[in-house]
């Protein structure tokens, strides 16, 4: 084990605590991206158009939404040295979030997805987009894909397959910065309704699938999202930027 980890001894970054980044990892990530990530667009045939998307009505969508519409009581407490019962700390306020509600307290985002979360994945942002932000101060939003059970009491047996309805959630966290706190509460901006059962795992294609510019005859692609489903399949979703769908389906 030491032979694999001894490179850490050479790294010096000062003290690390709380939410402060371990600075050497930024360099490692940059070098890894340069070596393995592509700047060329991949899978150009896996793009979507407006006609490929169907907006569900308020009645139809209920079959796909989580059943629980309110979260347990939540409180945000900063504990540095030792565990303390939040109920004994003066000024702590408990709050329940509505389904798909997000909040921002002291720069820390919280959201309620509606059920036990099984899969989460951040959409990978190309380096050139991050450089545009650094040079021109153009904010680049980051998106998180989330999957959860519809019910808090869902049970699944090993070796069995399931094909019930569900929803893959796409959340917008705004622009994230390693050196600053979050400035925007997370917002649900897109839901992918499906009939593939529980989604056990989500993963974005790490490079080559994020459109920096909008193609002429297609929707601008956010990325390709792989979902491991309880019906025994792995499906690939071509996810577009949510704002383009909001513009085309604003009246539905």
TL;DR of this structure?
The protein is an alpha+beta fold and 252 residues long.
Which value, in Å, is the CA radius of gyration? 20 Å
Strand count, sense and barrel status of the largest sheet are: 4 strands, antiparallel
- Mean of the pLDDT scores? 87
Uncertain spans: none
Number of helices: 4
* Helical content band: 10-25%
Topology as a string of helices (H) and strands (E): HHEEEHEEEEEEH
| Tertiary shape | globular
Name the beta content range: 15-25%
Describe the structure in your own words.
This protein is an alpha+beta fold. Strands 3-4-5-6 form a four-stranded antiparallel sheet, with no helix packed on it. A three-stranded antiparallel sheet has the order 7-8-9. It has one domain. The model has no long low-confidence stretch (mean pLDDT 87). The protein is globular, with a radius of gyration of 20 Å. It has four helices and nine strands.
Write the layout of secondary structure elements.
Elements: H1 2-5, H2 24-36, E1 102-105, E2 108-111, E3 117-122, H3 127-136, E4 141-148, E5 166-175, E6 187-194, E7 199-204, E8 221-229, E9 234-240, H4 242-248
Antiparallel strand pairs: 1-2, 3-4, 4-5, 5-6, 7-8, 8-9
InterPro entries: GTF3C_component, WD40/YVTN_repeat-like_dom_sf, WD40_repeat_dom_sf
GO cellular component, one term: nucleus
Keywords: Nucleus, Transcription
